[in-house]
Structure formats: C-alpha cells, structure tokens
Amino acid sequence: MDPTLVVLFYSSLAAGMAAVGVLPLLGRRKLPRHWIGWSNALAGGLMLGVAYALLVSARERVPLSGALGALLGILFVNRTHAASGTSELDLNRLDETSPDYGYKVLLVNAVHSAAEGVAIGAAMAVNLSFGVFTALAIAVHNVPEGTVLAAILTSRSVRLRDAAGLAVATNVSQVLLAIVTFALIAAAPGLMPWALGFAVGSLIYLVLAELLPECYREAGSTSIALVTLVAMGMVALLVSLGPGG
Ligand SMILES: [Zn+2]
After folding, report:
1. Is 107 among the domain residues?
2. Distance, CA 74 to ligand 1 centroid (Å)?
C-alpha cells in the first residue's frame, strides 16, 4: 500500500474509534462522575505512553531541534486554549447547559486531536510499523475520550447517535494533521526532530493541563494515578517489545 494511504487508513481508523466510546452510555441517562475521571485518566495515560515512545525514537535526532519542537507544541496548545477562551475549561460539566460550553468542548477536542495527528504523522515518518503502533494506541485512547465527550453531549440532550458522529468529527483534525505532518517530513526530512518534539510537548502538556486536573476531583488521586500509570506502562512495555522508532 502507498505509505500516504497507510497514514490515511490508520489515522481514519483511530478517528472512527471515538464512536465506540458512546457504548458505556447505552441504556443509561448519565455516566457516573468517577467513570469520567477514569476515562480521562485512561486516555491521558495512553497519551503519556505515546509521548514516551516518541521521545525514545527522537533521542538520537538533533536534541536541540527536538526540544524547540516540544516548546512549540506546548505553546501551540497553550495559545490555542488562550485564544479560544478554553484554558480553564473542565471537560466534565454534565450540568452545564450554556450553548457556549458545548461549542468550546467541541473546539477543545478538535485542537487536542490535531496534536495527536502530528504524533501519528511523525511516528509514521520514523517508520510505518512504528506509525501503525502509534495510531493504534491513539485509536484505543480515542475510545475513552469519545466516552467523555459523548457524556457531555448527551447530558445536553444530544442524541447518542449524533454524539457518536460529533466525537468522530472532532477527530477529523487528527487525520488531516497526520497526513500533513507525514507529507511535510517526506518533503523536508530535517523537520523530523521538530515534529517529534512538537508531538511530545503537546501530548504531555494536554495530559497535565487538560485531562488530569479534573480527574483528581472526580475519582480520587489514588485510582487516577493508578489508571494513568498502568495505561502509560502498557504502551511503554509494548513499544519496548515491538516496533521501536
Ligand atoms: Zn487525547
């Protein structure tokens, strides 16, 4: 298969997995709050695992460019949050009914997914098997993130089917950025450490600033720390056994 089609196929598969995230909402009106915390912790742990894998594959590639790329990744998330007024947005307000909140949650999810698209594209450029591994890890993580988004949307009277569609739609940025990043690195291989650094910086920042803070309020620090660490450890273990960069 053409490498760009591989990127398209696996990033689309990852994006589509968000729809699976609505399943825990079948037959229930509201998700227990600690489930939301655990879902975000699971997603965050998988993201940290992916960041670790990218960091390992970046370690021998121009450290300064990688570090500057990471700084850019952090700035990207921080500035897009600030510009859209979503810096302190909690992704757990099931009782919040203002239309503004709904749009902001969708926007935050789209920006979040874009950073993960860079991670997929950069990993694919390292080598395709590592890229497929990364895309599959992001695919699994899109399920609990889809659950959190669907919980927020259905609490605002969005139908479950539409919530599934919106969860996938916010991941379109993931597919686009995966392809653009892959194509850019193919055209200019010098961008590789920048892209890897950007992905690592933005993923870790998203976990620390967006996902984890509210988790602790929902489910308690011990269970959140354990879920996060086990998820991260699984990815780190798998990457050390399998397709390293
Ligand atoms: Zn994520």
Report:
1. yes
2. 14
Cα of 15 from ligand 1 centre, angstroms: 11
For the chain, how big is the Rg over CA atoms in Å?
Answer: 17
Please report where in the chains the tokens 């696996």 appear, as a residue: 10
Residue 245, domain member (yes or no):
no
243 CA → ligand 1 middle, Å: 21
Q: What is the mean pLDDT of residues 94-123?
A: 88
Assign 91 a pLDDT band (cuts: 50, 70, 90): low
Cα(115) to ligand 1 centroid in Å equals: 8
Total domains in the chain come to 1
Q: Is 159 in contact with 34 (CB distance < 8 Å)?
A: no
pLDDT tens for 202-219 read 999 999 998 999 889 888
In this predicted structure, the answer to whether residue 4 has a pLDDT above a threshold of 60 is: yes
Range in 35-49, 158-172, 211-225 the model is least confident about: 211-225
Range of the domain at 59: 3-239
3-state SS string for 15-50: HHHHHHHHHHHCCCCCCCHHHHHHHHHHHHHHHHHH
Q: Which pLDDT belongs to residue 61? A: 75
In a domain, 244, yes or no: no
CA of 43 to the centre of ligand 1 (A): 6
The two tokens of residue 160 are: 């479950």
Q: What is the crossing angle of helices 128-155 and 3-16, to 10°?
A: 30
State in Å: Cα 185 to ligand 1 middle: 23
